[in-house]
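Suppose a classmate hands you a notebook page containing two proteins, each written out with its sequence and a corresponding row of structure tokens. How would you begin to make sense of it? This section walks through that situation. The first entry is reproduced here exactly as it would appear on such a page.
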Amino acid sequence: MPAPPPARWSRDWWAGMVPVPTGRTAVAVGVLAVLAAFVPGWIVATGGGLLLAAVIVDRAITPAPWSVGVSRELPTVLPLDGDGEVVWRVANPSSRRLTIQLADELAPSLGASSRAVQLTLLPSGRGRASTELTPVRRGTFTPSRIDVRVAGPLGLSSRQASRRLDGRMEIHPSFRSRDAAELRVRRARILDEGQRAVRARGGDTDFEALREYVQGDEYRHVDWAATARAGTPIVRTYRAERNQSVLVLLDTGRTVAGLVEGVPRLDHGMDATLALATVATYLGDRVGLLSFGADVRSVVPPHHDRGQLRRLSTALHALEPELAESSYRAAIRETLARFRRRALIVLITEMAPEAVEETLLPALPVLVRDHAVIVASVRDPALDRLLTASVADAEAAYGAAAASEVLAARERAAARLRGLGVSVVDAAPDELAAALADRYLDVKGRGGW
């Protein structure tokens, strides 16, 4: 009896011992069945016996599948809108030419162009095969099994077994607004170098110069001695401060599970998070993340080094909407516990009027008291299209009326948020990331928070 395979093969040991008939064997059996109608039975029986003997011999001289060297190479990280490649490497352990088939355990959502390949290897030769990946879902994927089939030299049988080959691959959220973020970085570079307005009007930062008062300046920055000398209000200006803190509160509750332009609201929020982090870390601010649903789900501490964008993307990739109401109080409680010093809090959520009025508004005052707050939400362009479409029939009229009511309710919710001192960004999917980055730059250009 041959030696047993390594432990990783043992589950399919007996399967690998049993010959697997091939298409050529099936054709031979079909021919014998046809001949049975025209020739004596002993001839058919003899032919069947010879065929069975040939299958057994073919099986006996076929190398065991666990003797074949197999390895798999996966990309460690792949963006959702990117392309990748899986590579299989196979080694022929025998002194005969071998045909080897592989079938890999790749999830359908990885978008593999093929999950099975066939290689014909020279004696003691090596081969390589690959397939393209175009993933359609975020998450962590851990393929762990490859089926290996070795064809017999006569082509009448094959041997097959499953190999345990653990792999791990992370599909990260797509960064669709990367170009927009890099454009803001260039704008931020101008801001940072002093080629545009960097004179602050509201931060405890380094004093820079004096200038005349303009509407919107805070009275606490009025320089009364200079005002008396000039005879007109004069304020102190400050250089924009670096190393401030920005914390993104990312809602992963029920309301962000809906699709906008075919993409979950949560994924639009992830894109905006990455864009904001790209710009803010360039300006030297520390950016962190707190994701929450019914409770706090994950926290990425604020940093401003180049690796922070990768940390954020890693934390985001495995998040999925949970079918539960979001607890703004839990998120705010955790925020206040972690951030004693004033920070810019960016809450990315769905600005559903009911959720805003019933749960968000009551929880916000304690947060606004100690921090600057921006609430960002993605607005469905379908509502604007319904509102502006020509009213050709009753259905279109009802659609326009419903869209008008929804948009009006969102604006009322936004107005109530602004009444608490909250800055609101409510933008279409292709505008949300850029609008949020612009709002951050505007706050930063005024000296921070």
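The notebook's second entry, a different protein, reads as follows.
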Amino acid sequence: MNARQRHAILVRHAHAEWPTYVGADFDRPLTPQGLGDAASTAAAIRDAAHRPELLLTSPARRTLQTAQIIATTLDLPDSAIRQVDALFNAAAAALDAELRRAFATADTVLLVAHNPGISELARMLTNDPTFAAFLPGHWLHTAYRCD
């Protein structure tokens, strides 16, 4: 792969039902606060003039809802969202591997995932071991070098 510059936008899913949700962790939806926070996150990404070509997301309900809100706000087609089973509660190394695969077809990729993996990936990509853990709905844009 060549060394051209790519851009990653890392997003932790917005606030989801917890701990009162009855059901599988995979199925937890965003709360009303989470829906609003996802909309605010999407607006901030739009206002920062970031336009991903591809949105990778865990297929968990809360991450998919967050990705759909972002795609709608950025006026991206549904086809821009790619659900990847391996992203569900994935560690940083697995998230990074999926980003690398995605960069084969896109220069700017937005990744919606879960903690602690998404925060670990942010620490790794920024080379900042003190980078604070993402709160629900937090995001980071960073350059990504594929060598």
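A careful reader of the second entry would note: The domain at 5-145 is CATH 3.40.50.1240 (Rossmann fold).
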